[in-house]
UniProtKB/TrEMBL annotation:
GO terms for cellular component: plasma membrane. One of its GO terms (molecular function) is growth hormone secretagogue receptor activity. InterPro entries: GHS-R/MTLR, GPCR_Rhodpsn, GPCR_Rhodpsn_7TM. PANTHER family: G-PROTEIN COUPLED RECEPTOR, GROWTH HORMONE SECRETAGOGUE RECEPTOR TYPE 1. It is found in: Cell membrane. It comes from the Eukaryota. Keywords: Cell membrane, Disulfide bond, G-protein coupled receptor, Glycoprotein, Membrane, Receptor, Transducer, Transmembrane, Transmembrane helix. Receptor for ghrelin, coupled to G-alpha-11 proteins. Stimulates growth hormone secretion. Also binds other growth hormone releasing peptides (GHRP) (e.g. Met-enkephalin and GHRP-6) as well as non-peptide, low molecular weight secretagogues (e.g. This is Growth hormone secretagogue receptor type 1.
Length: 316
């Protein structure tokens, strides 16, 4: 009996070590990539097109998600007691859900903007401006925050479970949990169908149009990059939404409880992967992004090499 117990403990320990080994490089890689994306867009005036304004705002959302990863990792190793208080519990869960909704909205509206640019270019010239794009991005953040606001009521530190930060019993019994689960799934399914329709129409338009124009070639390249980003989004978040993190399993059914925990862990890894992988996709798919990023890297490297001030060198 004791041997079985020790085997289970070692199995769980090996699993947690493996997840930690995956999480830490993923977080560092994602933080670096998203920070560079934000810097490239805002320090290079020629990169401030509507497409890259959306992508830089998405990078802010992904950056916030990755900054919450250490808390998620801490909860894996020590789910209780939660050391940071009720407010930190609510805000961390709210921010995670808000950024999730925000990223989905950004991908959807960016794809709609590309649809206008490819299929209705004259209309796009009058409707799509930098100022309107910035206002729309602000509205997307506001809409995501309002959608995620119920999380502030749903989660908290439960004293019954030795101060664990989790979904409350009130959320489950009041129906708020079910409503939020439906909303979360709608945030995935509705954009999924919109994206499928939009990219079908874009593909049809580009297929029927001759490839002589340079602008059409640029559209094809941009749509190809966004198509890969959308594919990565679907692959990473399909499991997240099929194993919703707000599930409230019957703790008497131990098998299903632990199965759901493992599935939620896989969903969590894919969730953070989706926040970290976008800058790599930009780098692989966009020549313009690479050309904007390279001078940034070179100037930083030259400054760090030639600066005799050790403090300035450390900051580089």
């Amino acid at each position: 009996m004791r041997r079985d117990s020790n085997d289970k403990i070692m199995s769980i320990l090996h699993f947690l070590v493996g997840v930690t080994i995956v999480y830490i490089p993923l977080m560092l890689f994602g933080l670096l990539g998203n920070i560079l994306t934000i810097l490239v867009v805002w320090l290079r005036p020629h990169m401030r097109s509507s497409t890259y304004l959306y992508l830089s705002s998405m990078a802010v959302s992904d950056l916030l998600i990755l900054l919450l990863l250490p808390l998620d990792l801490y909860k894996l190793w020590r789910p209780r007691p939660w050391p940071l208080g009720d407010l930190a519990c609510k805000l961390s869960m709210f921010l995670s859900e808000c950024c999730t909704f925000c990223t989905i909205l950004h991908i959807t509206f960016l794809s709609l903007e590309r649809y206008l640019a490819v299929c209705w270019p004259i209309t796009a010239k009058t409707l799509v401006t930098r100022r309107r794009t910035r206002v729309l991005i602000g509205c997307l953040w506001l809409g995501a925050a309002i959608s995620a606001a119920p999380v502030l009521v749903m989660v908290g530190v439960e004293e019954i479970d030795k101060r664990e930060c989790r979904c409350s019993d009130y959320a489950a019994t009041s129906g708020l949990l079910s409503a939020m689960t439906i909303l979360s799934n709608m945030y995935f399914l509705i954009p999924f169908f919109i994206l499928g329709l939009v990219y079908s129409l874009i593909g049809r338009t580009l297929w029927l149009r001759p490839q002589s124009s340079r602008k059409d070639q640029s559209h094809r390249h941009t749509v190809k990059m966004l198509g890969v980003i959308v594919l990565a989004f679907v692959l990473c978040w399909l499991d997240v939404h099929s194993n919703n993190s707000y599930t409230h399993p019957d703790k008497n059914a131990f098998f299903y409880y632990y199965l759901s925990q493992y599935l939620n862990l896989v969903s969590s890894v894919l969730f953070y992967l989706s926040a970290a992988v976008n800058p790599l996709l930009y780098n692989l798919m966009s020549t313009r992004y690479r050309h904007a990023l390279l001078p940034q890297y070179k100037s930083s490297a030259i400054h760090c090499t030639h600066d005799s001030n050790p403090v300035a060198f450390a900051n580089c």
